[in-house]
Amino acid sequence: MRVPVLTYHGVNVAGDAYVGNDHVALAVDLRLISDAGLRIVPLSWVVQQLLGLAARDLDHCVALTCDDGSDYDYFDLDYPPHGRQRSFFNTLLDFRRERGFAAQPDLHLTSFVIASPAARREMDQRCLFGRDALRSNWWRSAQTSGLMSIENHSWDHNHPELSGNGPYGMPRGSFLDVNNHARADAEITAAARYIDGVIAPQRCSLFCYPFSHVSDYLRSDYLPNHQAEHGMLAAFGDGATPITFDSDRWNLPRYICGYHWKSPDELNDLLHAGT
Ligand SMILES: [Zn+2]
């Protein structure tokens, strides 16, 4: 198994060119991946394979993820001053209409969302446009569409723009400070339970580290030793290699659009190095 996992951000909109606009990039990349003869599969399949819970054929496969759970993942919305953006969800549907179901029968995108309603409201005001574009009202529809899964990107991202301290006196701005059991419960287990409440009867089971900050406490203690509490099966960082059977279950690598590749050619190189 050598599965590259690609990551997009719905709020990465700096124009309408491939570089700087993850919506434009995803639309191009779906076609590029298909033309390269690669299959897109759900991220959960890769984790199940890694953990010995499934034995599918995952040769020449790719998995897709997106982070932070803005409404731009699901709804077409304006992003001032760059205009209307085609949502990631609708970009998947566009691809299906253009190429047909058989082109990518397992087409799927995993969206890592921020749980806390208060944190989402505050980040919407301070980091976006105050248009209420970090909602949870689409999570269930996305999940039941079969084209997306909603997974865990922490309680509040411990984002630097949030007011006050984080849980248990944690300074804002770094996820490396999630370094004890109480903070980990507040950031990961509480987030999982909140997300589960929205997407029930589905449950989230994958975690993605905010800022790709992989705290040693989370990776080597909390996540492996407290699974009965948090229910996570695996966690994702930004290691920029394909997932193989040698990958660390609690720090699985991903490639970030705009960072690890900035053009279709660079993605093509990355995919061929990785399969
Ligand atoms: Zn994030």
From TrEMBL:
Ranges of residues in domain NodB homology: 59-220
Biological process annotations from GO: carbohydrate metabolic process
SUPFAM superfamilies: Glycoside hydrolase/deacetylase
Name of the protein this chain belongs to: NodB homology domain-containing protein
Database matches in Pfam families: Polysacc_deac_1 (PF01522)
Species for this entry: Pseudolysobacter antarcticus
Molecular function terms from GO: hydrolase activity, acting on carbon-nitrogen (but not peptide) bonds
Domain of life where this protein originates: Bacteria
Organism lineage string: Bacteria, Pseudomonadati, Pseudomonadota, Gammaproteobacteria, Lysobacterales
